[in-house]
Amino acid sequence: MTVVINMRDGPDEGKIRIAARFILEGKLVAFPTETVYGLGADALREDAVRRIFEVKGRPPDNPLIVHVASFDDLKKVARDIPPEAKLLARRFWPGPLTLVLPARDEVPRVTTGGLDTVAVRMPAHPIALALIKASTPLAAPSANVSGRPSPTLAEHVADDFYGRIECIIDGGETPIGVESTVIDLSSEEPTVLRPGGLPIEEIERVLGKLEVQVKAKGVARSPGMKYRHYSPNARVVVVEGKGERVREKIRELIEEYRSRGLKVGVMARYRYDADGFFNPGRTTEEVARNLFRGLRELDKLGVDVIIAEGVEEKGLGVAVMNRLRKAAGGRIIRV
Ligand code: TXA
Ligand code: MG
Q: Among candidates 232, 20, 242, which has minimal Cα distance to 136?
Protein backbone atom coordinates (compact mmCIF):
# COMPACT_ATOMS: atom_id res chain seq x y z
CA MET A 1 0.00 0.00 0.00
CA THR A 2 1.35 3.39 -0.98
CA VAL A 3 0.01 6.55 0.61
CA VAL A 4 0.36 9.55 -1.72
CA ILE A 5 0.46 12.84 0.19
CA ASN A 6 -0.27 15.99 -1.79
CA MET A 7 2.03 18.80 -0.68
CA ARG A 8 2.11 20.80 -3.90
CA ASP A 9 1.27 23.91 -1.90
CA GLY A 10 4.33 23.42 0.29
CA PRO A 11 5.08 21.68 3.58
CA ASP A 12 2.10 21.10 5.87
CA GLU A 13 2.85 20.32 9.50
CA GLY A 14 0.24 17.59 9.94
CA LYS A 15 1.13 15.87 6.68
CA ILE A 16 4.86 16.07 7.41
CA ARG A 17 4.16 14.37 10.74
CA ILE A 18 2.46 11.47 8.95
CA ALA A 19 5.42 11.03 6.59
CA ALA A 20 7.92 11.38 9.46
CA ARG A 21 6.12 8.61 11.34
CA PHE A 22 6.65 6.25 8.39
CA ILE A 23 10.38 7.07 8.47
CA LEU A 24 10.64 6.50 12.23
CA GLU A 25 8.92 3.12 11.78
CA GLY A 26 11.67 2.10 9.34
CA LYS A 27 9.48 2.53 6.24
CA LEU A 28 10.28 4.15 2.87
CA VAL A 29 9.11 7.64 1.92
CA ALA A 30 9.77 9.25 -1.47
CA PHE A 31 10.11 13.04 -1.18
CA PRO A 32 10.98 15.99 -3.42
CA THR A 33 14.33 17.74 -3.22
CA GLU A 34 15.48 20.70 -5.31
CA THR A 35 17.36 18.28 -7.62
CA VAL A 36 15.24 15.13 -8.10
CA TYR A 37 12.93 13.01 -5.92
CA GLY A 38 14.69 10.91 -3.28
CA LEU A 39 13.69 7.52 -1.86
CA GLY A 40 14.22 8.08 1.85
CA ALA A 41 14.73 5.92 4.92
CA ASP A 42 16.29 6.42 8.36
CA ALA A 43 20.00 6.60 7.46
CA LEU A 44 21.06 5.07 10.78
CA ARG A 45 18.74 2.05 10.59
CA GLU A 46 20.23 -0.88 8.77
CA ASP A 47 16.96 -2.73 8.11
CA ALA A 48 15.31 0.36 6.63
CA VAL A 49 18.28 1.18 4.40
CA ARG A 50 18.48 -2.42 3.23
CA ARG A 51 14.97 -2.08 1.84
CA ILE A 52 16.01 0.89 -0.30
CA PHE A 53 18.53 -1.34 -2.05
CA GLU A 54 15.92 -4.09 -2.42
CA VAL A 55 13.15 -2.03 -4.00
CA LYS A 56 15.53 -0.11 -6.27
CA GLY A 57 17.41 -3.23 -7.32
CA ARG A 58 20.57 -1.31 -6.45
CA PRO A 59 23.93 -3.07 -6.21
CA PRO A 60 24.92 -3.17 -2.51
CA ASP A 61 28.33 -1.55 -3.13
CA ASN A 62 26.74 1.65 -4.49
CA PRO A 63 26.53 3.95 -1.43
CA LEU A 64 23.69 6.31 -0.57
CA ILE A 65 23.69 10.04 0.19
CA VAL A 66 22.69 10.99 3.75
CA HIS A 67 20.44 14.07 3.79
CA VAL A 68 20.75 16.37 6.82
CA ALA A 69 18.92 19.48 7.97
CA SER A 70 21.56 21.05 10.25
CA PHE A 71 25.27 21.16 10.97
CA ASP A 72 24.57 19.13 14.12
CA ASP A 73 23.18 16.37 11.90
CA LEU A 74 26.37 16.54 9.82
CA LYS A 75 28.50 15.95 12.91
CA LYS A 76 26.34 12.94 13.78
CA VAL A 77 27.29 11.13 10.58
CA ALA A 78 30.74 12.46 9.56
CA ARG A 79 34.01 12.92 11.47
CA ASP A 80 37.31 14.77 10.90
CA ILE A 81 35.46 17.40 8.89
CA PRO A 82 38.15 19.35 6.97
CA PRO A 83 38.11 23.16 6.60
CA GLU A 84 37.17 22.83 2.88
CA ALA A 85 33.97 21.05 3.88
CA LYS A 86 33.03 23.80 6.31
CA LEU A 87 33.72 26.43 3.67
CA LEU A 88 31.64 24.70 1.02
CA ALA A 89 28.81 23.86 3.40
CA ARG A 90 28.62 27.42 4.63
CA ARG A 91 28.59 28.76 1.08
CA PHE A 92 26.36 26.22 -0.73
CA TRP A 93 24.12 24.49 1.84
CA PRO A 94 21.27 24.01 1.74
CA GLY A 95 21.80 23.19 -1.93
CA PRO A 96 22.70 20.68 -4.66
CA LEU A 97 26.16 19.80 -3.34
CA THR A 98 27.15 16.46 -1.76
CA LEU A 99 30.33 16.14 0.31
CA VAL A 100 32.10 12.79 0.78
CA LEU A 101 33.69 12.71 4.25
CA PRO A 102 35.04 10.13 6.72
CA ALA A 103 32.05 8.28 8.22
CA ARG A 104 31.25 7.88 11.89
CA ASP A 105 30.88 4.33 13.16
CA GLU A 106 27.21 5.03 13.92
CA VAL A 107 26.46 5.09 10.18
CA PRO A 108 25.64 1.52 9.12
CA ARG A 109 27.98 0.23 6.41
CA VAL A 110 24.89 -0.74 4.44
CA THR A 111 24.30 3.01 3.99
CA THR A 112 27.89 3.67 2.82
CA GLY A 113 28.05 0.64 0.54
CA GLY A 114 30.72 -0.83 2.81
CA LEU A 115 32.96 2.27 2.61
CA ASP A 116 34.44 4.19 5.57
CA THR A 117 33.29 7.44 3.97
CA VAL A 118 29.81 8.91 3.89
CA ALA A 119 28.24 11.24 1.32
CA VAL A 120 26.25 14.06 2.96
CA ARG A 121 24.10 16.87 1.68
CA MET A 122 21.62 19.42 3.02
CA PRO A 123 18.83 19.74 0.44
CA ALA A 124 17.31 23.15 -0.31
CA HIS A 125 13.72 21.95 -0.73
CA PRO A 126 11.39 23.06 2.11
CA ILE A 127 9.55 19.70 2.14
CA ALA A 128 12.80 17.74 2.36
CA LEU A 129 14.10 19.93 5.18
CA ALA A 130 10.80 19.73 7.09
CA LEU A 131 10.72 15.94 6.76
CA ILE A 132 14.30 15.52 8.02
CA LYS A 133 13.68 17.91 10.93
CA ALA A 134 10.54 15.98 11.90
CA SER A 135 12.34 12.62 11.73
CA THR A 136 16.06 11.93 11.33
CA PRO A 137 18.86 12.17 8.72
CA LEU A 138 17.62 10.37 5.61
CA ALA A 139 19.53 8.00 3.36
CA ALA A 140 18.09 8.72 -0.05
CA PRO A 141 19.13 7.75 -3.55
CA SER A 142 17.17 9.11 -6.49
CA ALA A 143 13.69 7.53 -6.36
CA ASN A 144 13.94 5.48 -9.56
CA VAL A 145 14.42 1.81 -10.24
CA SER A 146 18.17 1.32 -10.64
CA GLY A 147 19.32 2.28 -14.13
CA ARG A 148 16.19 4.28 -15.07
CA PRO A 149 16.07 8.08 -15.51
CA SER A 150 15.79 9.96 -12.19
CA PRO A 151 12.31 11.20 -11.19
CA THR A 152 11.47 14.89 -11.36
CA LEU A 153 7.71 14.43 -10.74
CA ALA A 154 5.81 12.36 -8.17
CA GLU A 155 4.22 10.53 -11.15
CA HIS A 156 7.67 9.24 -12.14
CA VAL A 157 8.16 7.86 -8.63
CA ALA A 158 4.72 6.21 -8.76
CA ASP A 159 5.55 4.68 -12.18
CA ASP A 160 8.57 2.95 -10.64
CA PHE A 161 7.41 2.22 -7.07
CA TYR A 162 3.64 2.45 -6.60
CA GLY A 163 2.57 -0.40 -4.32
CA ARG A 164 6.15 -1.16 -3.28
CA ILE A 165 6.91 1.71 -0.88
CA GLU A 166 4.83 3.12 1.97
CA CYS A 167 4.60 6.78 1.04
CA ILE A 168 5.13 9.28 -1.79
CA ILE A 169 5.08 13.01 -1.04
CA ASP A 170 3.93 14.88 -4.14
CA GLY A 171 5.66 18.26 -4.06
CA GLY A 172 5.26 19.01 -7.76
CA GLU A 173 8.16 19.32 -10.19
CA THR A 174 11.71 19.40 -8.80
CA PRO A 175 13.25 22.74 -9.83
CA ILE A 176 16.81 21.76 -10.85
CA GLY A 177 16.14 18.40 -12.46
CA VAL A 178 19.62 16.84 -12.31
CA GLU A 179 21.18 15.31 -9.19
CA SER A 180 23.62 17.04 -6.85
CA THR A 181 27.30 17.59 -7.59
CA VAL A 182 29.37 15.08 -5.58
CA ILE A 183 32.80 16.12 -4.31
CA ASP A 184 35.18 13.88 -2.36
CA LEU A 185 36.89 15.67 0.53
CA SER A 186 38.03 12.51 2.32
CA SER A 187 41.41 12.22 0.58
CA GLU A 188 44.28 14.66 -0.07
CA GLU A 189 42.90 16.36 -3.17
CA PRO A 190 39.29 17.53 -3.36
CA THR A 191 37.88 15.62 -6.34
CA VAL A 192 34.61 16.01 -8.21
CA LEU A 193 33.08 12.55 -8.57
CA ARG A 194 29.84 13.57 -10.28
CA PRO A 195 28.96 16.85 -12.02
CA GLY A 196 25.50 17.97 -10.99
CA GLY A 197 23.15 20.73 -9.96
CA LEU A 198 25.88 22.99 -8.61
CA PRO A 199 28.19 24.00 -11.50
CA ILE A 200 31.83 23.01 -10.93
CA GLU A 201 32.88 26.58 -11.80
CA GLU A 202 31.06 27.79 -8.66
CA ILE A 203 32.93 25.37 -6.40
CA GLU A 204 36.21 26.34 -8.04
CA ARG A 205 35.54 29.94 -7.13
CA VAL A 206 35.84 28.80 -3.49
CA LEU A 207 38.46 26.02 -3.64
CA GLY A 208 40.44 26.88 -6.77
CA LYS A 209 40.96 24.53 -9.72
CA LEU A 210 39.51 21.09 -9.05
CA GLU A 211 40.31 17.61 -10.15
CA VAL A 212 37.38 16.01 -11.91
CA GLN A 213 37.25 12.23 -11.90
CA VAL A 214 33.91 11.11 -13.14
CA LYS A 215 35.00 8.10 -15.17
CA ALA A 216 35.51 4.89 -13.29
CA LYS A 217 39.08 3.79 -13.86
CA GLY A 218 40.38 0.93 -11.76
CA VAL A 219 38.68 1.13 -8.40
CA ALA A 220 35.70 3.44 -8.77
CA ARG A 221 36.00 6.47 -6.51
CA SER A 222 32.28 6.95 -6.81
CA PRO A 223 30.96 3.43 -7.04
CA GLY A 224 27.75 4.61 -8.70
CA MET A 225 29.57 5.79 -11.80
CA LYS A 226 30.41 2.30 -13.01
CA TYR A 227 26.82 1.19 -13.44
CA ARG A 228 24.40 1.71 -16.34
CA HIS A 229 22.45 4.87 -15.71
CA TYR A 230 19.63 7.15 -16.67
CA SER A 231 18.47 4.76 -19.35
CA PRO A 232 14.98 4.71 -20.77
CA ASN A 233 13.90 1.51 -22.52
CA ALA A 234 14.56 3.06 -25.91
CA ARG A 235 18.07 3.22 -27.26
CA VAL A 236 19.48 6.75 -26.92
CA VAL A 237 21.70 8.46 -29.50
CA VAL A 238 23.21 11.87 -28.79
CA VAL A 239 24.10 14.34 -31.53
CA GLU A 240 26.67 16.94 -30.47
CA GLY A 241 27.89 19.94 -32.39
CA LYS A 242 26.82 23.30 -33.65
CA GLY A 243 23.77 24.72 -35.37
CA GLU A 244 22.67 23.62 -38.81
CA ARG A 245 24.96 20.57 -38.97
CA VAL A 246 23.24 19.11 -35.90
CA ARG A 247 19.81 19.71 -37.43
CA GLU A 248 20.86 18.05 -40.67
CA LYS A 249 22.31 15.06 -38.86
CA ILE A 250 19.17 14.60 -36.76
CA ARG A 251 16.96 14.70 -39.89
CA GLU A 252 19.24 12.20 -41.57
CA LEU A 253 19.15 9.85 -38.56
CA ILE A 254 15.35 10.04 -38.32
CA GLU A 255 15.10 8.90 -41.96
CA GLU A 256 17.68 6.19 -41.53
CA TYR A 257 16.04 4.66 -38.44
CA ARG A 258 12.55 4.91 -39.90
CA SER A 259 13.63 3.23 -43.10
CA ARG A 260 14.64 0.33 -40.88
CA GLY A 261 11.12 0.24 -39.46
CA LEU A 262 12.02 1.79 -36.10
CA LYS A 263 9.88 4.28 -34.18
CA VAL A 264 11.89 7.42 -33.50
CA GLY A 265 11.57 10.03 -30.76
CA VAL A 266 13.51 13.30 -30.79
CA MET A 267 14.47 15.49 -27.83
CA ALA A 268 15.69 18.79 -29.21
CA ARG A 269 15.09 22.50 -29.26
CA TYR A 270 13.89 22.58 -32.88
CA ARG A 271 10.83 20.73 -34.02
CA TYR A 272 11.35 17.58 -36.09
CA ASP A 273 8.92 15.36 -37.87
CA ALA A 274 9.26 12.08 -35.98
CA ASP A 275 7.08 9.57 -34.08
CA GLY A 276 7.62 11.49 -30.85
CA PHE A 277 9.00 14.92 -30.07
CA PHE A 278 9.96 16.61 -26.80
CA ASN A 279 11.29 20.14 -26.48
CA PRO A 280 13.36 20.43 -23.28
CA GLY A 281 13.53 24.24 -23.48
CA ARG A 282 15.97 26.86 -24.65
CA THR A 283 18.29 27.60 -21.74
CA THR A 284 20.63 25.06 -20.14
CA GLU A 285 18.64 25.41 -16.90
CA GLU A 286 15.45 24.45 -18.73
CA VAL A 287 17.12 21.51 -20.44
CA ALA A 288 18.43 20.28 -17.06
CA ARG A 289 14.97 20.60 -15.52
CA ASN A 290 13.25 18.72 -18.36
CA LEU A 291 15.89 16.17 -19.37
CA PHE A 292 14.73 13.12 -17.38
CA ARG A 293 11.08 13.96 -17.96
CA GLY A 294 11.74 14.03 -21.70
CA LEU A 295 13.41 10.62 -21.67
CA ARG A 296 10.52 9.16 -19.65
CA GLU A 297 7.80 10.73 -21.80
CA LEU A 298 9.34 9.61 -25.10
CA ASP A 299 9.72 6.14 -23.62
CA LYS A 300 6.02 6.07 -22.79
CA LEU A 301 5.25 6.66 -26.47
CA GLY A 302 6.97 3.37 -27.14
CA VAL A 303 9.68 4.68 -29.45
CA ASP A 304 12.62 2.37 -30.25
CA VAL A 305 15.22 5.13 -30.52
CA ILE A 306 15.56 8.54 -28.88
CA ILE A 307 17.74 11.04 -30.71
CA ALA A 308 18.83 13.72 -28.24
CA GLU A 309 20.50 17.02 -29.08
CA GLY A 310 23.59 17.83 -27.00
CA VAL A 311 24.16 21.09 -25.11
CA GLU A 312 27.23 23.23 -24.51
CA GLU A 313 29.35 21.90 -21.64
CA LYS A 314 29.27 24.95 -19.43
CA GLY A 315 27.52 25.46 -16.09
CA LEU A 316 24.68 22.94 -15.74
CA GLY A 317 25.47 21.77 -19.28
CA VAL A 318 28.30 19.63 -17.85
CA ALA A 319 25.78 17.65 -15.77
CA VAL A 320 23.31 17.44 -18.67
CA MET A 321 25.94 16.01 -21.05
CA ASN A 322 27.18 13.61 -18.37
CA ARG A 323 23.65 12.18 -17.99
CA LEU A 324 23.02 12.10 -21.76
CA ARG A 325 26.30 10.30 -22.47
CA LYS A 326 25.50 7.69 -19.86
CA ALA A 327 21.98 7.24 -21.16
CA ALA A 328 23.46 6.79 -24.63
CA GLY A 329 26.04 4.29 -23.42
CA GLY A 330 28.64 5.65 -25.85
CA ARG A 331 26.36 6.27 -28.86
CA ILE A 332 27.55 9.85 -29.44
CA ILE A 333 27.72 11.44 -32.86
CA ARG A 334 29.82 14.62 -33.23
CA VAL A 335 29.22 16.78 -36.26
O1 TXA B 1 20.59 15.19 -5.90
C2 TXA B 1 20.90 14.09 -5.45
O3 TXA B 1 22.07 13.81 -5.13
C4 TXA B 1 19.78 13.05 -5.30
C5 TXA B 1 18.77 13.61 -4.30
C6 TXA B 1 17.72 12.61 -3.94
O7 TXA B 1 19.43 14.09 -3.17
N8 TXA B 1 20.33 11.79 -4.86
C9 TXA B 1 21.07 11.00 -5.66
O10 TXA B 1 21.46 9.82 -5.09
O11 TXA B 1 21.35 11.29 -6.80
P12 TXA B 1 22.04 8.59 -5.91
O13 TXA B 1 22.11 7.48 -4.97
O14 TXA B 1 21.22 8.38 -7.12
O15 TXA B 1 23.50 9.01 -6.28
C16 TXA B 1 24.49 9.08 -5.28
C17 TXA B 1 25.87 9.14 -5.89
C18 TXA B 1 26.26 7.82 -6.50
O19 TXA B 1 26.99 8.05 -7.69
C20 TXA B 1 27.14 7.21 -5.41
O21 TXA B 1 28.06 6.26 -5.91
C22 TXA B 1 27.83 8.44 -4.86
O23 TXA B 1 26.82 9.44 -4.86
N24 TXA B 1 28.29 8.22 -3.47
C25 TXA B 1 27.54 8.07 -2.37
N26 TXA B 1 28.30 7.84 -1.27
C27 TXA B 1 29.58 7.86 -1.70
C28 TXA B 1 30.83 7.69 -1.05
N29 TXA B 1 30.93 7.42 0.24
N30 TXA B 1 31.95 7.78 -1.81
C31 TXA B 1 31.88 8.05 -3.14
N32 TXA B 1 30.71 8.22 -3.80
C33 TXA B 1 29.58 8.12 -3.11
MG1 MG C 1 20.51 7.80 -8.97
A: 20
Q: Where are the domains of the chain?
A: 3-212, 235-334
Q: How far is the CA of 62 from the centre of ligand 1 (A)?
A: 8
The rounded Å distance from CA 99 to ligand 2 centre is 16
Residues 149-174 have pLDDT tens digits of: 999 999 999 999 999 999 999 999 99
179 alpha-carbon distance from chain centroid? 3
Please state whether the predicted TM-score (pTM) of the whole model is above 0.90: yes
Question: pLDDT digit string (tens) for 277-310?
Answer: 999 999 999 999 999 999 999 999 999 999 999 9
- C-alpha dihedral sign at 295, 301, 304, 308: negative
Query: For domain 3-212, which architecture applies?
Result: Alpha-Beta Complex (3.90)
74 contacts 25 by C-beta, under 8 angstroms: no
The answer to whether the CB of 190 falls within 8 A of the CB of 211 is yes
Residue 265: alpha-carbon gap to chain centroid: 23
Nearest CA to ligand 1 atom 7: 38
List CB contacts of 222: < 8 A, sequence separation 6 or more: 100, 182, 184, 193, 194, 214, 216
Name residues with Cβ closer than 5 Å to ligand 2, which is an ion. Answer: 142
- Closest ligand 1 atom to residue 224 Cα is 21
Class of the CATH-defined domain 235-334: alpha beta
Whose atoms come closest to the Cα of 35: which ligand? 1
CB 137 within 8 A of CB 76: yes
